[in-house]
Design brief:
Layout: E1 9-14, E2 19-24, E3 28-32, E4 43-51, E5 54-55, E6 58-64, E7 67-72, E8 79-84, E9 89-95, E10 101-107, E11 113-119, E12 129-133, E13 142-145, E14 151-157, E15 163-168, E16 176-180, E17 185-190, E18 198-204, E19 208-214, E20 227-232, E21 237-240, E22 251-258, E23 261-267, E24 274-279, E25 282-290, E26 297-302, E27 305-310, E28 313-318, E29 324-327, E30 336-342, E31 345-350, E32 354-359, E33 365-369, E34 378-379, E35 385-387, E36 391-404, E37 410-425, E38 428-434, E39 438-442, E40 451-454, E41 462-469, E42 474-480, E43 487-492, E44 499-503, E45 511-518, E46 521-527, E47 537-542, E48 547-553, E49 562-568, E50 571-576, E51 580-585, E52 590-596, E53 605-610, E54 613-618, E55 622-625, E56 632-636, E57 650-651, E58 657-661, E59 664-670
């Protein structure tokens, strides 16, 4: 008999990194399910399998002198660590404690003050702008102000020490914000682009602040694309200075002032991303160069060379010739969140949790794992979950944790972006990877790391739900286009990677939030984040022929957008984004049952069918439905999973359920009396 994860000790192995964290698995917990609506009770066993994924995840980095400062991502509490390049050790850190991630870092011209901007899930009513005095790193950073835009995505410090911030909040156009270190006040300077949905670029000189925005999120429905504005600090006015060649791209991604020039980059979509160099004295004088990447970011310069990062690695742009050449690196840099040049060395900070130092003359490089260097390796909020009899996989940022159910060992695999949802088929993992990464796969018997199986149109960047059509032998993936609006259905054959993408199968506004399948037919659940058109449409779709078979619109009381779907027999079960429940009889093609479950399901949800029963999980509760009456029964109350982008639940070959309770992975063995 092999030992279960609840016996003995668990080890965390960082793929390609250090070993050393150990924790005893929590004991087996037994609870009696709480029955509602007269449903019979049963005994439910909940086994705690430990943290879903543990790592030092990061979202920003900036080199100041000989130290790289790195902002955390989806860790509690938020913090900035200091990685000392000469010793290759983490020498200090400061805890900020608000929000979930730090995307924006900037330093003043003296190198004394480091500023950090916070991302939050909701308005916490606390500072989102912090300052750390680097001359006394033992003293914590202090909150110095708050922008009403909630999220700070980028910061810039002008030569005189004035700080400028950009970002956004869902449903509002982003503004330009100013922090005056003399008065300590945060001031809103205006909204230059009323149709923008997010701003991620800002740069400042003595006279001008440059503001870059677009539709990185919430695109379509009339949202603007890439826009660049110059703010006159003396006059307090904005001027649109967007190069026309960049206007088709979804958004401005980054800005950098280099001497008498402004370097501008975009995030691409239908077209590749672009790089522009503008004359600060005459902004109508510029060059624009297309790249081969989907995004160009992390700009840094040395002499006449501008270095930048894409999703595929590093590039070097020669301003004298306009030529772009790759910067060689022996390995995979993954998602890059920091790039700086000093003394002939490029310092690269990877989302995989390491710092790479590349000698630009020789091409030689040194990689240091941040966990091994002293960065805190702690539980993260999670994404997709998939399981079979041997392994459970939990998605995080730039990583997937593989839990061995026999030994309790956990290994962190590297996968760029985020595994939003996943399935295991015949022992092989298949994931939908955000952003614009398509489908990835991992066979634990042959693969050292996950690899890409199939790419899909880059504008269809956000996979949301993955299921398997056993009749047609196809993986089905529902996706959202953040930049263009609407969404798609992807189909992909396991093993061969044969694929197809069907754009806007519901309509131009509705993304495909959920997918379920029965007898070779895909059922697509629409969700509409815009203010225009229907929402919550259900479409029956032939995934081989690529055509609609029929559709129904949900009753008016349920039109808040689909959250999840599952099939049992002839019935399609569904939950909406505000706890509405419905059942469609697929033989007569109509809704035969509805209910209000907002008390159990206040927002997003996920569903799975196992052992002839449909289960669902929300942010708060795991529950199931009676197959005959459709009555709901709470299985695990107050499960309160720590999810990054909505809850997930999956089942292994034996019908055991896996989801999150807090930041820990749990297995639920539930045998209801039917």
């Amino acid at each position: 008999m092999h030992s279960s994860p609840s016996m003995g000790r668990r080890r965390l192995l960082m793929a390609g990194g250090a070993v050393g964290l150990a924790a005893a698995a929590a004991p087996l917990l037994t609870a009696t399910a709480q029955a509602t609506a007269g449903a019979p009770s049963c005994t439910t066993r909940v086994t705690d399998l430990g943290p879903g994924i543990e790592q030092f995840a990061l979202m920003s980095a900036l080199q100041v002198g000989d130290t790289v400062y790195i902002g955390s991502r989806n860790l509690e509490p938020t913090r900035v660590i200091a990685f000392h390049l000469p010793t290759r050790r983490v020498v200090s850190q400061t805890v900020l404690g608000t929000g979930h991630s730090i995307q924006a870092l900037a330093a003043d011209a003296t190198g004394r003050y480091l500023y950090a901007g916070i991302l939050t899930k909701g308005d916490e009513g606390r500072p989102n702008l912090f300052r750390w005095d680097l001359t006394t790193p033992e003293k914590p950073a202090v909150g110095i102000g708050r922008t009403e835009d909630r999220d700070i995505r980028e910061l810039a410090v002008a030569p005189d020490g004035t700080v400028y911030a950009v970002g956004g909040v869902p449903g509002k156009a982003p503004a330009l914000w100013m922090y005056d270190p003399v008065t300590g006040k945060v001031t809103k300077l205006g909204i230059p682009d009323p149709k923008a949905t997010l701003a991620r670029a800002v740069a400042a000189t003595d006279t001008t602040v440059f503001f870059g925005a677009g539709s990185t999120l919430a695109g379509g429905d009339g949202a603007s694309k890439a826009s660049l504005y110059a703010y006159d600090r003396a006059a307090g006015t904005f001027t649109n200075v967007t190069p026309p060649e960049m206007e088709a791209d979804p958004s401005l991604r980054e800005l950098l002032v280099v001497g008498d020039r402004l370097v501008v980059s975009t995030a691409g979509s239908v077209e590749p991303a672009k790089l522009a160099v503008m004359d600060l004295a005459d902004l109508s004088s510029y060059t624009v160069t297309p790249t081969t990447g989907k995004v160009v970011k992390n700009l840094t310069a040395h002499g006449d060379t501008i270095y930048f990062a894409t999703e595929a690695g590093l590039g070097a742009y020669a301003t004298a010739t306009g030529a772009i050449t790759p910067v060689p690196f022996d390995g995979d840099l993954g998602e890059i969140w920091g790039l700086d040049h000093a003394d002939g060395t490029l310092t690269v900070v990877s989302g995989y949790g390491f710092v790479g130092e590349i000698d630009t003359a020789t091409g030689r490089s040194v990689v240091t794992d941040l966990g091994a260097a002293g960065a805190p390796v702690v539980p993260q909020t999670t994404m997709g979950i998939a399981a079979d009899h041997r392994y459970v996989y939990v998605g995080g940022n730039n990583g997937i944790a593989r839990h061995d159910l026999r030994t309790g060992t956990v290994v962190n695999l590297r996968a760029p972006g985020e595994a939003k949802d996943a399935e295991v088929l015949d022992g092989v993992l298949y994931t939908g990877q955000y952003s614009s990464q398509g489908m990835w796969t991992y066979d634990p018997t042959t693969d050292e790391q996950p690899r890409q199986l199939a790419a899909f149109p880059s504008e269809q960047n956000r996979p949301l739900d993955v299921c398997y059509d056993a009749v047609n032998r196809l993986l089905l993936v529902g996706a959202q286009s953040d930049t263009e609006g609407g969404g798609s259905l992807w189909t992909c054959a396991p093993g061969t990677g044969r694929k197809a993408a069907y754009i806007d199968p519901v309509d131009a506004n509705q993304l495909v939030r959920a997918v379920a399948t029965r007898d070779g037919v895909a059922y697509l659940g629409g969700d509409n984040p815009t203010t225009q058109g229907p929402r919550g449409t259900i479409v029956a779709f032939d995934p081989v022929a690529g055509r609609e078979l029929w559709r129904i619109d949900l009753p008016a009381t349920l039109t808040t957008g689909t959250a999840a779907l599952a099939v049992r027999g002839r019935h399609l079960y569904g939950l909406t984004r505000k706890g509405g429940f419905f059942v469609v009889d697929l033989t007569v093609r109509r809704v035969i049952h509805t209910a209000d479950h907002r008390a159990l399901c206040p927002g997003f949800a996920a569903m799975v069918t196992t052992r002839g029963v449909v289960y669902a999980v929300s942010d708060t509760t795991l529950f199931r439905f009676d197959p005959k009456t459709f009555a709901v029964t709470t299985v695990v109350p107050e499960i309160n999973g720590a999810w990054y982008s909505g809850p997930h639940v999956n089942a292994d070959n034996r019908g055991r359920l896996y989801t999150m309770r807090g930041r820990n992975l749990v297995r639920i063995e539930d045998r209801p009396v039917i």
